[in-house]
Amino acid sequence: MIESHIIPSTLSVGGRSSALAVIQSEHIGSLILSKLPEVTNVPITKLKTLGDNVLNKPLYSFGGKALWTKELEDKLANRELDIVVHSLKDMPTTLPNGFILGAITKREDPSDCVVLKAGSEYKSLKELPEGSIIGTSSVRRSAQLRKLYPTLQFQSVRGNLLTRLRKLDDPESPFACIILATAGLVRQNLGHRISFTLQKDEMYHAVGQGALGLEIRKHDHVMQHVCNIISDHEATVCCLAERSLMRSLEGGCSVPIGVESHYNHETQELTVHGCVISVDGSKFVEASVTKKIEDVQMDANEVGILLSAELCKLGAKEILESIRFEDIH
């Protein structure tokens, strides 16, 4: 146990400079202040990363998830920061040497949602006319929707949340709707723009979606103690299993892997559903694994490994190995 008197009164928290990232960093700052009375000051550093600077092409085409983390990790290594706050879905499943995932905090709704153009009267994706254009930069989302709705078209849409909404609502815009993470809209008080959410029968969500991951220096026992206090058990169990699945499948943000997790507090059982789908939606496998969680790290990791094995028996590896860069560019 870390003695309270060695926890510093000031803890430095950092994150990206986007509006959503700042909200998330401030949330963690408030959580620390509310849970650790010995901490009286949590300055927030807002940093623009390479991923924020390149907005004219999809992330999977020029580097993936590391684009969100490198500059922040440099400051963490230099002890300019104590904790880095990430959207967990943007954190690589294997972190660079010297860093660890210190905590996962309480998860917001992990689902994806549909935001229709302002004034639209449609109530579901199946009502959209043939050829309607859906805005999404996610291969996972477009692949799953191509499977269900082959007559719809998909175009990449980048930029911060307000920029995407402006692009959608522009009368000259080609988009009938855009697909976004429910959590991002809720956290920015834009939940009223959610037309409807997508459940597993239409859309498996991304690994870690809706959760915040706190990155700290390896062997920093004081920061690990802080992280232990503000972590959330259910989110940790679910997200560690999801990340284990992605790591086992050797997937990243450029491949269509989707999940849905449920943890039963009474029975301590975790159930994780997972899917792998080809970019065009023509090949699709799904499976699920349930296991009682006694050791969080070990058992959650095993769930991901077991689910990966089940999906591979059904052909997941062949689907992933067949995906070429030109398919998703």
UniProtKB/TrEMBL annotation:
One of its GO terms (biological process) is protoporphyrinogen IX biosynthetic process. Residues 11-224 form the Porphobilinogen deaminase N-terminal domain. InterPro entries: HemC, Porphobilin_deaminase_cofac_BS, Porphobilin_deaminase_N, Porphobilinogen_deaminase_C, Porphobilinogen_deaminase_C_sf. The keyword Lipid biosynthesis does not apply. Its cofactor is dipyrromethane. It comes from the Eukaryota. It is an enzyme of class 2 (transferase). Keywords: Heme biosynthesis, Porphyrin biosynthesis, Transferase. Pathway: Porphyrin-containing compound metabolism; protoporphyrin-IX biosynthesis; coproporphyrinogen-III from 5-aminolevulinate: step 2/4. Belongs to the HMBS family. This is Porphobilinogen deaminase. It comes from Hanseniaspora valbyensis NRRL Y-1626.
